[in-house]
């Protein structure tokens, strides 16, 4: 029979036991290698809502 886990504080217990089902299940490597947000957004000058702020 394995020994019970020990926790440093309640926040660690809550993260590991109570909220274990809400994890994203991504490793650090998955997050770093994710290319979802590397796409450049191109706006036409006519569609740029901040164009008037750049005139100063």
Description:
With 56 residues, the chain is an all-alpha fold. The protein has one domain (8-51). Helix content is 27%, strand content 0%. It contains two helices and no strands. It has helices spanning 10-18, 28-33. The protein is elongated. The mean pLDDT is 76.
Q: What is the end-to-end distance? A: 71 Å
Largest sheet: none
Report mean pLDDT, rounded to a whole number: 76
Tell me the helix content.
Answer: 25-40%
- DSSP helix count? 2
Low-confidence stretches: none
Radius of gyration: 23 Å
Structural class: mainly alpha
Note the topology:
Blueprint: H1 10-18, H2 28-33
Give a brief rundown of this model:
The protein has 56 residues and is mostly helical. Helix content is 27%, strand content 0%.
Characteristics:
single chain; 56 residues; elongated
